[in-house]
Task: structure prediction
Amino acid sequence: MATDVQQEQIVKEAIGQINHIATLPEITLKIIELVEDPSSTAQDLHKLISIDPALCSRVLKVVNSSFYGLPGQIAAINRAIVMLGLNAVKNIAIAASLAKLFRGGQITPYFAARDLWDHSIGCATATKLLAEKLGFGLTDEAFLAGLIHDIGMMVEMQYDRNKLIDVLDKVKPDSEGMPTGNMLEAEEEIFGVSHEVFGSALCERWKFPKTLTSVTRFHHTPEEAPEEHRTMVYLVHVGDRIAADHGCGFRLDLPDTKISPAAFDKLGLTPQKLDEIREEFPAMLENMSDLLG
Ligand SMILES: [Fe+2]
Ligand SMILES: [Fe+2]
Result:
């Protein structure tokens, strides 16, 4: 296994090399910066988004979807910002620009960026539903957290696709679609680090909020996440499993989809609530896939 110093070197090299490919559009980075600045106003954000008409129309499409359940149609961005707040509009802009990154062909019979995107939308939808049903609020941050949790695999694909093919060969699905090996161990053996480490480095590079960096870093071991981010990490951890059980896209990094007693405990989740969420999930997923798919 790679030492800490070696790991750091590998991550630095990977993120450096993919820099020209996996960048968020400049406007998205500017939006993140602007919203993080406490002196920014709704007008500043309106001005910035107005530069990009495609982004404007995508934001309005999401605002007017059942995702927010607002009464009546909203035709203008400034109105959307007033109704939803800067932070929500920021998250919509990020989600809309992420879709573009998950492109690329079928690299093995069991992996295509598209399958990972389907999985990410599934996890995002389930995580949002969990946050909503369990009364945590922050539902669009939850959605975004679900959307980016496995983004480290896109780093792997763009950094060295042959290594990713070797990893996937070690975990290829059995006849039921279950992995035949442990993906995180295979990544550590072949790349030197896992998709969790690659993903969190990318989030740092993008200056994403720290919660999202923790989500990518610890979604397979939520108990190890920093205390202040642990709830969100657990939400994604459970959302990941709900999406996998439903059969949304890629799921070979999960040896099983059991939800631990610690997760039930931490989130105040009950088997009844979980059943309700699983029941509401397909309709909401269809909606989200239409918007972002
Ligand atoms: Fe993962
Ligand atoms: Fe996942």
Notes: The mean pLDDT is 90. The beta strands are 106-108, 111-112.
